[in-house]
Amino acid sequence: MDIAKGDILVMKKKHPCGSDRMTVLRSGMDFRLRCAGCGREFLIPRAKAEKNIKSVIKEAES
After folding, report:
1. Whole-structure pTM value
2. Which of 1, 22, 33, 57 could form an S-S bond across to 8 if both were Cys, CB 3.0 to 4.6 Å?
3. Quick one: average pLDDT of 50-59?
């Protein structure tokens, strides 16, 4: 999956705050994501993140 810094991920599961959109701050072996709803930043393993992605909104589209 081609995911780069700045992309917005729409996840299958919602964050506890209720938002399902996450902004990619760093990609590699794991992702650093920022919740679009509450602004919390967290690190998640790449395999777990890719399994839970519903769609990707590229940086250039928004």
Report:
1. 0.87
2. 57
3. 92
> Cα dist. 1→9, 10, 11, 30, 57 in Å?
12, 14, 14, 13, 13
Please tell me the total count of domains within the chain.
1
Give the number of other Cβ atoms within 10 Å of residue 27's Cβ: 18
* Chain segment 6-46, per-residue pLDDT in tens: 999 999 999 999 999 999 999 999 999 999 999 999 999 99
| Residue 49, domain member (yes or no) | yes
- Find the domain containing 24 and state its range: 8-57
62 inside domain: no
Q: 26 in a domain, yes or no?
A: yes
Whole-number pLDDT of residue 7: 95
Domain-embedded: residue 33 = yes
Q: Which helix (H) or strand (E) holds 11?
A: strand 8-11
